[in-house]
Structure formats: C-alpha cells, structure tokens
Write a structure and sequence with these properties.
Length: 545
Amino acid sequence: MTPLNIPEWQSLDRHYSDLKFVSMREQFALDSKRFERFSITSGDLLLDYSKNRITQETMDKLIQLAEAVEIQDWVEKMFKGDAINITEGRAVLHTALRNRSNNPVMVDGKDVMPAVNAVLEKMKRFCDQVHNGSWLGFSGKKITDIVNIGIGGSDLGPAMICDALEPYGIDGMKVHFVSNVDGTDLSTTIEHLNPETTLFVVASKTFTTQETITNAQSARNWFLKEGKPDDVAKHFVAVSTNAKEVAKFGIDTDNMFEIWDWVGGRYSLWSAIGLPIALYTGMDVFERLLDGGHQMDNHFRTQPLPENIPVVMGMLGVWYINFFNSQTQAIVPYDHSLARFPNHMQQLDMESNGKFINRTGARINYKTGPVIWGTPGTNGQHAYFQLIHQGTQLIPVDFVLPVNSHYPDCDHQSILLANGLAQAEALMKGKTAEEVRAELVNEGYEGSALEALLPHKVFPGNRPSNVLLFPKLTPEMLGQLVALYEHKVFVQGVVWNINSFDQWGVELGKQLAKAIVPDLKDGAEISAHDSSTTQLIKLIRELRQ
Ligand code: G6Q
C-alpha cells in the first residue's frame, strides 16, 4: 500500500498548499503559548519543536497519518519480537538488550532475556577482571589499552559512545577504534601501543567481514612479534554470532561474547558490541546507558502519539521530506564530545531508510530517507551554516544542547549555548529587507551602495529546527538520545512502508570487492568488467610499487 493513497496523506498535501507561505515569525507573534504548545518533555529531556513550519492543524494531521499507518501496532510488533525484518525473516529486538524491566521477550516461543542477561553478566565479570588486574597480559602487566576492531555497526556506535562518555572513562584505561581496511588506520593506532598491555576486541556479527578480519589478522601478526601463540587468548576476545569462524580465527570461544541475529548492526551498541564501552567506562556506566535507552523505550511505547518524542520528530521529518521536498537533515550537537553522533545517526538513518522498494516488494514513487549530516557547533557555523541560512534548499536542523559541561573549569558553556540558541532563532526569524535597510542606514550606507548590498544581507528565515535540551550528557541521557533517534527512524520507515532493518546495499559492497582483489595481483588474468574498471585495474598494477 502506498502512503500516497491514504486519505490522511492527501489531506496533508492539501494542507501543505495552504501552509507553505505561512511564516513562523508571525505564528510566534500571534501565539504567546507556542513554545508550551509545541514542546514535550520526557524525564530530563526536552524537545522544543515550536520552530517548525507547523500549526496545530498540521500536527493533528501528522498524528492522524501516524495513526492511519497503525504506528502503535508496529511498535508493539517490534517490542514483542515479531519478525518485522521480513527480508531476513528476523525479529528486531535491540529493545530487549536494554529491557531493564526484564519482562520476558519471546522469539520463536523462547524468552531471550536469560541469554541477554547471561551475556551482560559475562561482560561484567570480564570487565571487572580487566579492571581489578585479575586478567593480565602475557608478561603479567595490567591491560591499559583496548583496541576495538570492527566496522559499520560494529564500530560507529561504540566509538561514538566512548567519545561522548570520556568523562566517565576509567583512570589509566584508553580505548581505540580501528575500522578502515586502509593499513594506515591499524598502523597509526598500534605504533604507540605495547602488546603486553593491549587487548583487542574483534567485533563482527558475522565474523566474515573482510576489513575486520584483515585488520584482526594484522593485529595478531603484530602481537606475535612479542607474544607467543599461547598468549593470544589473553589479548584477543571476540564479539560475534559466529562461534565457528571465531574459533577458526584462533580466538578461544570462551572469550567470545555472543550476539544474536535479531540485533541489527547499527542497533548493536547495546549488546556485547558495547564491550569496548564497558571496558573503557566500567560495566556500571554501560548499564546506565542501557537504563537511558530503556527509559526512552517506555516513553515511545506508552506515550500518546502527540506527546511522543520519536513520533513527533519522525512525523516532522516526513512533513519536510515528502511535502516540502527536503533532501537532507542536519544534526548539530553543541557538545564537542558528541562529534561522532552525526556519523552514527547517518548510518542509523541512511542504512535503515535508504530504500526504494516497499515491504511488498514494489517500487516506491515517493521520497524516503534523507541524507543525514552534521558536525558539532559552533564549528559548523563557521563552515556550512551559510547554506542553511541563505542557500536554496530547506534543511531542517536538530540542535542538541546539553546545558552543563563536564568541564566547568573551562567555563565556555554560556557562549556555546548562546550560539546554539541564536542559530535556531535566526533560522526561524530571518532578516527582512526593511530590517537590513535600517541596519545599513545605521552603519552610514546610502544610495546605490546601500541598494547594491541590501539583497545580499537578507535572510529569508522560516527555516525549521528542533532543539533537544537536557541538563548534562550523562550515560542515561546519551542512552535516551540514541534510542530516541532509533525510534524516530522506525516511525518514518512505517509511514513509508519500508523494511528499515535490512541493508542489502551494505551486503553488495561486501561481495563486490572480493571479486576484484584477485584481479589486482600481478600477472593474474583480469576477470570480466566494464572497460573503465579493467583499465583502472591495469593502471593500478602498473603503478604499484
Ligand atoms: C549495520 C550493517 C553494517 C555492519 C557491518 C559490520 O547495520 O549491517 O554496518 O554492521 O558491515 O558487519 P559485521 O559486524 O558482521 O562485521
């Protein structure tokens, strides 16, 4: 079923024609309660969505559309473990990984919670041993450096969380992430490390991913320059679903932390894929992260749709993508430690909703997932914000604002926050020609010089943004934020009638390169390719040193 035929979608289409010229500035002037009307809190987290191109009627219609696609039924299907990942025949249960209520969650008639809890318990035992020194390196020294080797979902989420939770890092423990098969990544990481005190976590759900296995083999070779083959067990652990491949690689399966096929890669930081987080911060902090995720799950599952943060954010996204024709969504955290947050969100959203086929296998004739991008504020202001203010595209922005810093000695927070708020305000208000004229006159401009400069300094405004505001970036808050975006993406996938939980585009990449690797060998017969690829292969062979 295409959403274009749903009466609520068509009603939004008509509403869009009426609303597209309505100015937010005027709406704010007319309604002193606009902030109260269009903001939601969940615990310590506030979503202010008042600076959007909406009226109450818009929100009513968006919520009616969410109801028409039976969003609440889909939410229940996901939480209850139905196989909603239809192309892979799998349940989608990242919510079970952070199910702190411990209520049973059934997959194929079996409760998954005992297995989830057992792995959490194993992670805890292992982290405690590493931290208290009962797990030592081969020469009897304490582990000081964790190197996670993984890629995509087995890298981005844990790397982002470790950055963000740097204030919670255990003294003396450092964490590194190696993902790229470009040897530079591994080489520049290990060149400063001591194999006696380094622990590698090889994180791969399938344990067949070329980049990860290649990096892990090279890491083992590096380790074996000092350690003996028997010492590998003390320095390499694995996170995977694939015990056979783990054993084949040479890692003792006692040192393997299990994940399950119902955990999607980009949703896996809550599983044992989060082991580097727990090793870096301690298991108690990792559990606080899970608590935050669970809190958002409860919010998502129980709050009425108009008061439901992921639903409201998801539907606002649909409003811009499908009616205003927006192509991209910026996520701009005003927190330097969230530098990798937009990257993780990019994978989460673009891999989940970058689809052109609907759940019934038919081609889609409407827009789905946007391009997600962003970097921390204020840096982005000195780079790409020009285009957001005065470019020709409508780019909705999420401003993520923690009120308090973890580093109060360096008290820059007022300046940081003022910048975030000022950007959101300026995007909404813009600057009219009259205002620019008054400013220029004030500055002494007149005549043709004034007229020539004036249009360049006009800001159209009416550019939408959300503000997510919270007291401090604690593990619980970070858990809430990540889970919020996961659910937002899910809401949009339901509206677009797509399977947000497969990733055939990623699988394609995994196959393609394997076919070309042998062609790059000197003297090998080059297999059939287009002429461009064949010539490039030949050139690479010639240029290779
Ligand atoms: C995520 C994707 C993808 C995956 C990586 C790594 O949802 O499936 O990014 O996480 O390709 O896969 P492995 O964990 O199997 O190595």
